[in-house]
């Protein structure tokens, strides 16, 4: 049977070309996605930077801490505390140490990523004086050449405020850090937390002195102390978060299209199957021939697809780099490593299995009918749905409706999770594609109803052709349905979520004005205090910190905002569930209701500097997951320099009644001039606050959309080419009945437009189901649910899908019309 299958392939290679193209592209997509995923699991070692010339580095550590599970800048409790004075004395006794501190220090007009260090640590990072000398007083600094010249007086922004310093010297710049160096004493004043120690004594003595209190880093492990370690992780976090979602959505789409294409190829061969059954082939023999054909085709196409995926993975990575998702150094190199071989082998197996699964059901149905019935089936395709397809479609429809109901009523916060929500959008669209044969009849009659009075036979012929070929119509409409349905659902959900977040934040902020960072990482408490001294001006500047709580035997890490209680009530409209913001004092806190704690109970917390506190729950408020911070009294502001950089991400400003607005705003602008802060309105604040979250969501959803649309566009063209090229007998009948070439072309174009309209109509129904759940979820989460539709993009994709469908029809029909009618009649299917 394998030889027969091979001979069939040789004789019908043109008919199998479409299935090969679909499978090659599908396998290439799966292979490329798999390579991206495995590459993130085994990255090459990065060179040591800040401590490249240090014999050993001592850093506090927590063996149970996984930084990948936390946001950038969040430290474990030992890391937040830093090196203790006791540990410093122990390590110093082994042969000497050099203290390193890392803190926010930015030259006015410089990069917001600049970092401050004590000068003695500079030599371990390869810094050498280019001119001038080391800082000798607390008002002197050393900067990289190009930032300033020796002898210049510059302004430096720190968490402790704004200060003037004299540049005593410059160093040769490095490409991994932009540092500002202070004296030991000044660095200790600006940043009391000790980041790390360079141990100069014998390594074994250092390890003995440190014990279990910290980690001694040598060799390549010293890279753990580099700031780029966290930056690389953050950059890869976006990739690791996005790629599985892309792989799931795009992979599912590819598998569905490939399986449908193979099943369609079997359906196209009904006449050949009828002939085999008539000459005595058993159902089992027919199934074996078809399976062997699928095995040969899928084996060849999967090999080509894996090779294409191997070399195309970097193109996908480059696309992510261009979108700002992956870091510029992210590379996928062909090799014999498991991170390359495993995804390629998996993609190959997926291609073969999908092809076999795609033909199995169709082959069983085609082989299990009697020869006479097979001949009748070959003439007219009027069956529409098989029981198995009907069951699968019903399950998909129930799951889609159930997911919509769950999102709308059970877990509306699911729409905030890109991974889970993007997958849920797939279900109604795929269910519509599976059930498409049932919809062909009603939609054909509905769409053709306005044309019933048109003179001429074309409208009638198109209508009857589609009605008697429901499976073919459903197969050719499926890629259009997937393209428009997934694009519409993903992009509309992205825009609606962004608009709802913005409206929700607009309603939450009461203040008329705000201070926002102006080219800096945040706003220092000194600047906030300066603004608060202006008559008639009230300021609230929540400072981001970290608190640690015990959950049984685990230490939980949570975000906290240190803010004055009166200012909190005045500036923010928190949706209080229980208790009152008036009860917030120096020994209490306000928590989100997601914490599950009752008002009046006590929360035991560890602060970043090691202080323990028992805080009474003064109130709880309603919050979304990810925004459930704890509001803390002002006395914990000092811990922020241990937990984070000690800066306020923003400051809310309101004016007292009767205050001259023009005079007050002018005074504020003058007060913040040169401090790295700027005055903006509430609307500008809301727009900037939502911009980053909107950007991340858009990048995730739109990158998925780009890949899906590219694949589906090719699938549309491929499927229409297959379907139309197989209909030479229909074309011959039209020509023999007297139709001119122009009329034949009009017939096929009209049919492709009808198929496109059916696909778009089903896509709109599936999208409506998705957006219904989204509307209800956003209404519960934000109190508003503006469903915004990107009409221009959706219209463009729909038009492009239509053009591809027409192109996939015109090309084979044009080629066939060049042949004589008698040749068309004699052409095999």
Automatic annotation (TrEMBL):
One of its GO terms (molecular function) is transmembrane transporter activity. Residues 246-370, 704-818 form the ABC3 transporter permease C-terminal domain. The keyword Membrane applies. It holds the Pfam family FtsX. The chain crosses the membrane at residues 12-37, 242-267, 294-316, 336-363, 390-409, 421-443, 480-500, 704-723, 744-769, 789-811. Keywords: Cell membrane, Membrane, Transmembrane, Transmembrane helix. Its main location: membrane. InterPro entries: ABC3_permease_C (IPR003838), Macrolide_Exporter_MacB (IPR050250). Coiled coil: none annotated. It is found in: Cell membrane. Signal peptide: none annotated. It is a multi-pass membrane protein. It comes from the Bacteria. One of its GO terms (cellular component) is plasma membrane. The keyword Transmembrane helix applies. Belongs to the ABC-4 integral membrane protein family. This is ABC transporter permease. The lineage of its organism: Bacteria, Bacillati, Actinomycetota, Actinomycetes, Kitasatosporales.
């Amino acid at each position: 049977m394998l030889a027969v299958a091979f001979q069939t392939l040789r004789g019908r290679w043109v008919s199998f070309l479409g299935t090969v193209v679909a499978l090659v592209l599908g396998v290439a997509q799966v292979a490329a996605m798999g390579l991206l995923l495995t590459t993130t699991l085994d990255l090459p070692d990065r060179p040591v930077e800040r401590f490249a010339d240090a014999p050993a580095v001592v850093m506090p550590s927590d063996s149970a801490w996984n930084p990948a599970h936390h946001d950038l800048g969040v430290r474990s409790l030992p890391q937040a505390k830093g090196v203790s004075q006791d540990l410093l004395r122990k390590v110093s006794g082994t042969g000497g140490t050099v203290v390193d501190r890392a803190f926010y220090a930015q030259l006015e007009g410089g990069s917001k990523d600049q970092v401050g260090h004590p000068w003695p640590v500079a030599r371990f990072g390869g810094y050498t004086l280019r001119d001038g000398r080391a800082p000798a007083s607390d008002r002197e600094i050393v900067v990289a050449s190009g930032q300033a010249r020796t002898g210049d007086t510059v302004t430096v922004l720190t968490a402790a405020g704004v200060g003037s310093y004299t540049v005593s010297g410059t160093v040769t710049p490095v490409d991994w850090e932009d540092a500002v160096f202070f004296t030991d004493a000044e660095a200790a004043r600006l940043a009391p937390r000790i980041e790390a120690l360079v141990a100069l004594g014998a390594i074994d003595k250092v390890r003995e002195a440190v014990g279990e209190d910290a980690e001694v880093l040598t060799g390549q492990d010293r890279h753990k102390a580099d700031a780029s370690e966290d930056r690389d992780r953050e950059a890869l976090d976006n990739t690791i978060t996005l790629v599985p979602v892309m792989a799931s959505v795009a992979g599912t789409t590819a598998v569905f299209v490939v399986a449908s294409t193979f099943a369609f190829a079997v359906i196209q061969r009904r006449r050949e199957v009828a002939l085999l059954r008539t000459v005595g082939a058993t159902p089992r023999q027919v199934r074996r021939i078809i399976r062997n054909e699928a095995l040969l085709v899928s084996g060849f196409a999967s090999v080509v697809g894996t090779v294409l995926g191997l070399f195309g993975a970097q193109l996908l990575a480059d696309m992510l780099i261009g979108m700002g998702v992956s870091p510029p150094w992210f590379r996928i190199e062909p090799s014999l490593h498991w991170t390359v071989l495993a995804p390629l082998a998996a993609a190959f197996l997926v291609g073969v299995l999908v092809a076999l699964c795609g033909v199995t059901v169709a082959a069983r149905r085609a082989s299990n009918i009697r020869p006479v019935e097979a001949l009748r089936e070959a003439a007219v395709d009027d069956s529409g749905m098989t029981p198995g397809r009907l069951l699968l479609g019903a399950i998909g429809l129930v799951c889609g409706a159930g997911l919509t109901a769950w999102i709308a009523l059970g877990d509306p916060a699911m729409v905030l999770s890109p991974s889970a929500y993007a997958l849920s959008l797939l279900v109604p669209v795929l269910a519509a594609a599976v059930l498409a044969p049932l919809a062909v009849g009603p939609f054909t009659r509905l769409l053709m109803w306005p044309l019933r009075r048109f003179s001429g036979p074309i409208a009638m012929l198109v209508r009857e052709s589609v009605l008697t070929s429901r499976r073919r119509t459903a197969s050719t409409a499926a890629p259009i349905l997937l393209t428009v349905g997934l694009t519409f659902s993903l992009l509309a959900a992205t825009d609606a979520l962004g608009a709802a977040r913005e409206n929700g934040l607009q309603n939450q902020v009461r203040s008329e004005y705000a201070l926002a960072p102006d080219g800096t990482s945040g706003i220092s408490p000194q600047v906030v205090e300066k603004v608060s001294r202006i008559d008639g001006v009230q300021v609230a500047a929540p400072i981001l910190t970290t608190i640690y709580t015990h959950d049984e035997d685990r230490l939980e890490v949570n975000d906290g905002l240190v803010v004055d209680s009166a200012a909190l009530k005045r500036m923010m409209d928190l949706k209080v569930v229980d208790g009152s913001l008036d009860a917030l004092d120096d020994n209490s806190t306000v928590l989100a209701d997601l914490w599950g704690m009752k008002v009046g109970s006590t929360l035991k917390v560890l602060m970043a500097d090691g202080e323990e506190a028992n805080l009474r729950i003064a109130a709880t408020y309603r919050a979304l997951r990810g925004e459930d911070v704890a509001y803390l009294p002002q006395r914990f502001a000092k811990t922020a320099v241990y937990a984070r950089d000690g800066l306020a991400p923003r400051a809310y400003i309101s004016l007292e009644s009767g205050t001259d607005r023009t005079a007050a705003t002018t005074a504020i602008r003058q007060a913040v001039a040169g401090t790295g802060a700027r005055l903006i309105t509430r609307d500008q604040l809301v727009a900037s606050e939502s911009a980053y979250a909107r950007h991340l969501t858009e990048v995730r959803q739109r990158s998925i959309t780009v890949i899906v649309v590219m694949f589906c566009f090719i699938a549309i063209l491929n499927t229409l080419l297959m379907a139309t090229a197989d209909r030479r007998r229909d074309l011959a009948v039209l020509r023999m009945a007297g139709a001119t070439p122009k009329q034949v072309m009009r017939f096929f174009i009209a049919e492709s437009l009808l198929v496109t309209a059916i696909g778009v109509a089903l896509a709109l129904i599936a999208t409506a189901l998705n957006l219904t759940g989204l509307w209800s979820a956003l209404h519960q989460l934000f109190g508003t649910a503006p469903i915004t539709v990107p009409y221009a993009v959706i219209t463009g994709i729909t038009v492009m899908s239509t053009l591809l469908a027409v192109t996939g029809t015109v090309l084979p029909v044009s080629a066939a019309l060049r042949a004589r009618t008698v040749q068309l009649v004699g052409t095999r299917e």
